[in-house]
Structures are given as C-alpha cells and as structure tokens.
C-alpha cells in the first residue's frame, strides 16, 4: 500500500504567521476584510431580492454565516437559474464568496425570475385540466 504523509510546509507557515506579531496582525486584518466582504455580499443579495420581489423576506440569507448560503430555492427554481447562467446545488445552496459588486444584482435577478417563472407555472397548472396539470408536474421534475 502507498502511504503519503502531508507536507510540513503548511504547518510551518501557519506556525510562522501565528507566532510573529506583525504577520499575525496582517493575517487578522485580511481575515476581517474577507469576512466583511462576504457579509456585504449577503446584505446586497438580500436587498436586491427584496427589491425585485416586493413583500418577500430574505432575512435567512443574512441570518446565515460563512461562504455558502441556503437560498430556499426548489430544484425547479435552481434549474431556471442555471438556464440563466447562475449555478448552485440542487438544494439551493449558493456560494456567497462567488458574489461580487459586478454580479450580485444579476444573480438576484436570475433568482427572482426563477421564482416568478416557477410560481406562474404552478398557478397556471391549477387552472388547467387534470391531464395538463400532470404534464406540468412531470416536466418540472
């Protein structure tokens, strides 16, 4: 069997940064900058979605922390987003770290369009006959 041990360089580098006060301060400053940017993108995504979907609350986006967020989109809505070039997991999990000032409004628009399109299909299906309703449900999956 082949066994590989991890290189020591990463641990040595981390030790250097953590034990040197100047490097540690620089690392903490960069960490804070990154964290603030992600918080800002969460807030921007939320504000854009609430503007594009009046009456809706997207507080769950800003209530979460970290580089990823669950949007609450359904698999059908995720597919509608993908059709517009916005990709996420089928669970609706999106990379907040992948958002920036240039693309956050587009992402929010794609999500809003997907929500409206899927909602319109669901509402329309209620007014169709049984066979058409079944066809829409099958196509949505």
Account of the protein in words:
This protein has 141 residues and is mainly α. It has six helices and two strands, in the order αααβαβαα. It is elongated and about 55 Å long. The model is unreliable at 123-141 (pLDDT under 50).
Explain briefly what this protein structure is.
Helices cover 65% and strands 4% of the residues.
Q: How would you spell out the order of helices and strands?
A: HHHEHEHH
Q: Provide the structure class.
A: mainly alpha
Q: What percentage of the residues does DSSP assign to strands (E)? A: under 5%
Please state the average pLDDT score: 86
Q: Helix amount, in percent?
A: 55-70%
Distance between the termini: 45 Å
Strand order of the largest sheet: 1-2
Specify the number of helices: 6
Shape call: elongated
Radius of gyration: 21 Å
Low-confidence stretches: 123-141
Q: Largest sheet, described in full? A: 2 strands, antiparallel
Question: How many β-strands, per DSSP?
Answer: 2
Supply database-style keywords.
141 residues, mainly alpha, two-stranded antiparallel ribbon, 65% helix, elongated
Secondary-structure topology with pairs:
Layout: H1 9-19, H2 21-52, H3 59-63, E1 68-70, H4 75-83, E2 93-95, H5 104-127, H6 130-140
Antiparallel strand pairs: 1-2
Helix pairs in contact: 1-2, 2-5, 4-5, 5-6
């Amino acid at each position: 069997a082949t066994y590989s041990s991890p290189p020591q360089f990463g641990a040595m580098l981390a030790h250097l940064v953590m034990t040197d006060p100047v490097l540690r301060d620089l690392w903490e400053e960069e960490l804070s900058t990154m964290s603030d940017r992600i918080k800002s993108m969460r807030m921007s995504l939320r504000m854009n979605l609430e503007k594009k979907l009046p009456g809706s609350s997207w507080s769950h986006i800003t209530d979460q922390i970290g580089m990823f967020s669950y949007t609450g989109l359904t698999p059908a809505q995720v597919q509608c987003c993908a059709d517009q070039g916005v990709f996420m997991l089928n669970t609706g999990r999106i990379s907040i770290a992948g958002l920036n000032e240039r693309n956050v409004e587009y992402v929010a628009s794609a999500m809003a369009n997907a929500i409206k399109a899927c909602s319109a299909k669901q509402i329309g299906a209620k007014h169709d006959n049984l066979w058409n309703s079944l066809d829409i449900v099958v196509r949505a999956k």
